[in-house]
Amino acid sequence: MLMLAAIAATPALAQEAEDGNEPPQRVRSVLLYGDDQCPKPASEDEVVICSKVGESPYRIPKSLRKSKFSPDSVSWTRRAEVVDEVNRQVLPGSCSPIGSYGHTGCTMQMLQNWRADRAARKAEEAAIPGGEE
After folding, report:
1. Whether pTM exceeds 0.85
2. Taking a C-beta distance cutoff of 8 angstroms, is the pair 53, 31 a contact?
């Protein structure tokens, strides 16, 4: 079995010795922007891999620059509505744990729920026929 493994490994060792080429000691990957040129290898044992990625490393790619939604395309009315919606959560009467007097709305909300529940019970009782015989 060992003999078979040694015979199988011999061609691989012979090829490496025959070529005399060894893998490079250093591989450097470089990203190029705009008109940048690929740098030359510093020695024969170095391989430089270059790839062009765009105009500038600090710019948003053209495909992502224009979006369907931008602040310029939103009306002032909608902007004011959004501000009101966000602020409504922290205003007095909002039943919120954050903001000033947010807790004041909790009592109001509890009373409204109680009133709606009471009205629903009365409507349910009115729908049940009494013991008229």
Report:
1. no
2. yes
Beta bridge partners of 41: none
Task: Give pLDDT tens digits for 31-73.
Answer: 888 888 899 988 888 899 998 887 777 777 777 777 666 677 7
CA 51 – CA 53 distance, rounded (Å): 6
Contact between 33 and 57 (Cβ < 8 Å) = yes
